[in-house]
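Chain A, query sequence.
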Amino acid sequence: MAVLAESGSNPDVDLLYDINGLAKDAPHWFDRVMEFVGEYGLLLAMALLVLWCWSTVRRRGGESAVPSVAALVWAPLAAGLAVLVNVPIRGFVERPRPFVDHRNLDVLVSGKTDYSFVSDHATITMALGVGLFVANRRFGLAGIGLALLEGFCRVYMGVHYPTDVIGGFALGTAVVLLLSPPATALLTPLMRAVERSARAGWIVRRRAAAESSAVLPGARQPVESEERDLAA
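Chain A, predicted structure.
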């Protein structure tokens, strides 16, 4: 079976060798960078992108602030839910990691003993990217781009087949979009209630300068007696 795959009869394995072959030709330092980026860096970048989007949404305010923040809350929840859904999928498919059946791969990360299909990293990043797109298209496109790069890195590192990554992309997207209507129906009223809260309202909308100046200590307030004097 491995001989047939290596001969090009299996496009999945053929693409695996093409992408992972880039690691064999790359300098050692570049492989170490790709190892960090693919294992931790892009997840961190995605989290920072979500926070940046949240900061932008609450700063702009407007009528779209509440549903946008609700969508941003749903994005990480959907990513976590998608990973949970992946647990029985992995147990059912039981696909070994590619380096188990293909010994001549350049594997950049050791210690991977779980099953390969589907990729958790691809699932999480694409769920976050699509969730961002629901909240804000500009940030969503950047997030989806990071997710695609994550998928490339996982194959480059020799720890996933391309179809593992595609399956993760599909799973993350499906969970976000299919469950978005009920999630939005629950989270939007919750975020609206948070917005009205005196203590937690900053989560949804930044307080206007006029509001803050009105409560500044020492600010001069109009006095009723002054108005009477002026009238007199």
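Residues 6 and 212 are 67 Å apart (CA to CA). The longest helix spans residues 28-60.
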